[in-house]
Fold:
Amino acid sequence: MGGEDREVMERLACPFIPISSKPIKLITWSPLDRGRIKLNVDDGSCGNLGAAGGGGILRDYKGDVIGGFVHTYGHATNTIAECRAVYDGLWLCRQLNVWDVLVESDSVVIVGWLASGICKYWFLWNFWEEVKIMVRELNVRFRHIYREANMVADFLTKQGSQSLMSDFNDASSIHGRIRGSIRLDKIGLPYLRK
Structure:
């Protein structure tokens, strides 16, 4: 707003509320170096104690699907569902004999726990101990990412929250919209984050 406009607004005793805008960031899913594998996991809960599910997808350095899962967890909190999704994703890596994995999640809480090796909730300790064992076995690293870079896992999670369950070993058995997101990730099309 220009100086004259501001002066008129002040004379008329109209409140002036400045509008601030956040810069928009371009967020992309990024592949790893040749020979490396990435597991993206996510959780979802309809209410923070509600129908919960998790999903995850394993991709190689080209972005090609190696495997993935959609699981339902009954009624649970977001934290329980996220912990279960990490567990299920690592279990899938073990089943497929996939090692040296980077796990990405948009859960700051879970990634923080994984970095410190400490789970704060006693009722998750059984899962947590198994997760720690698989982390050592599979040479796993963890990284927090924005939700926009985790859209494929987010779509899979929504299916899990709707009581759908499946494991898959390639992209052919994945819902069309999710296959489209996988293609967009492969070509590096960015998502917008405010």
In short: The radius of gyration is 21 Å. Residues 40 and 104 are 5 Å apart (CA to CA). The mean pLDDT is 90.
